Amino acid sequence: MRVISSTVAFAVTATLSGVAIAGGVDFQFRPEFDSISDLSPDGRYIVGFSDAGGGYRYDLFAAVRTDLPLPGTIAAAVSDDGRTVLGSIDVLIDGEPKTEAAIWTEDSGVWTSLGALPEADCDFSRSTPYHISADGTVAVGLSWVGCNSHGFRWTAESGMVPLENLANGTNRASVVSADGNLIGGFAQGSFSRTPAIWGPSGVGTLLDPPNGDVVGEIHGMSDDGTILLGTWDGKATRFMNGGADRQIIGAGSLLPGWTSNPIDIANDGTIIGFDTLGTNRRAWIVPAGSDVMIDLRTYLIGLGADVPDDLNLEVASAISADGGVIVGHGFTGAWTAVLEQPVACLGDIAPPGGDGLVNIDDLSAILVAWGTPNADVNGDGNTDAADLALVLSGWGACPSPTGACCLADGCEALSAEECAALGGTFRGVGTPCAIASCVSNDRCVDAIDITDHINGAVIEGDNTTATPGFDSFIVDIDRPSGSPSCQWFGEPDFAHSSVWYAFDAPASGGVIVELCSSAPIPFFDSTLAVYSGVCGSLVEIACDEDGCAPVGEAPFYSRVVATGLTPGETYRVCVMNAGGWLGSVPGPFRLAIRSTAGFGK
């Protein structure tokens, strides 16, 4: 994420406002791109690796694709104006094929190698690109000294300069501030990667001195470098004051037991990132004004995005400066999401993204752009008296933006201040009440009553953030010992991410409870159990692992039949993932319950 000039920002706002966004989000699955590694701060240019086998640059506004020429292989980062791309090229060194970091410019149309550090002869890679400054003049990444990776900082004047090699070696420079003066990444600490930063002179600092015992790394930062984003002992973390102060983001991860990676931050404080568990990835967002992680797929669907049922949003890789464009990729291809921006304060146009005030800065922006489309407030394509009138009429503080506020009796769209006054939990600016962010049935005592759904509509559930997560050392204390007894590997403690429901038994004395209609993205491999008794002294009376399909057929959903129930008595249902392997993951699901009467059971 970068700060962009006022002129560019206003042009971008006008362009985005002209995009037809059905339901609030223009979501596009882009399988022609294998990855999106970076996004210009105005949300216009994306770069990455394409299906054609090389790097590309794509103009989201003009829908123009530029396949970058050979010998380029990947595109890793793009300058603010989109005219400079950092990537890799193939080279021959002493007759052997190698790769080196390189820069492509629109003016030249060709790649220029950044070279490598001396003794870069470990394998085929001599240097690897990671990030670039706002103006495209400073590049960072890693190169090799023997088989030990070193972070580097490159400029045209200095060439490739090694950064101080910290801790036990194996360093990498992963991200650089807009002005090119602060670099974040990792060093090899006592056990694994540990967060590290460097200044423009190359002098570095471990954020966990003196040895780097903590596991983590820096992934991203705000433009001015005042906020660093990284992983600290598996938890998503903000670093301030040069890394001296740390704040855990949200609960530390979206999915309990997963490692969380915050990647990028918008001007309003919105953060995007993703959790990892083995080869599993799950993208998330923390909307502005909130500190709650929300599954990004669920968030976008709640805003009206048409996300394909079989598409998991795995990696969120970048967000624009105003938070209006989010991009990422997964195993099946890349995706882009252009969000319709709420218009709470039309005249708040300076700085880009607004500052909550309509004042002399906004008036000056109108006057500077007069007669051009660059500060068009009303969307008519020109900056004129009509736009000036809107600025003057809105003079002063902007109304507080609203978002989902979870209250005891439901959800309302309120400002953060209004939500706090009512004792609610604010889910972030722009967050829709349509998402399942206010439902909490993580514990048996908070079981949701589904009696009215017997022989009725399915229940839309979600166990994404349920505890305990994927961790065999943590057991759900609400389940009786040995339950779920049907766990596929005979290890009931492996079952995880449990949520709870309750129902009063129908007159038939039997129910069929199933998850068969759930979509296998991303929810996969479930277990269902039905219990009698009260919380704290439950007794398992029925359990099923894979009853929705023949044995061994994915997605391994559950269908349990419970009979011999006492009509009118309350029973509890636990929905969980089977666990015991990395493919058993939580997510949104569909739970159906019906009486056995008339079903031959």
Q: How many beta-strand segments?
A: 42
Strands of the largest sheet, in order across it? 34-36-41-38-39
CATH C-level name of the domain at 444-595: Mainly Beta
Strand-residue proportion: 35-45%
- At the fold tier of CATH, the topology name of the domain at 444-595 is Jelly Rolls
SS field, number of helical segments: 5
Low-confidence region ranges: 1-23
Largest sheet: 5 strands, mixed
Q: State the helical fraction.
A: under 10%
Globular, elongated, flat, extended or rod-shaped: what is the shape?
A: globular
How large is the radius of gyration? 26 Å
Structural class, by secondary structure, is mainly beta
What is the CATH-assigned architecture of the domain at 444-595? Sandwich
Query: For the residues shown, what is the average pLDDT?
Result: 91
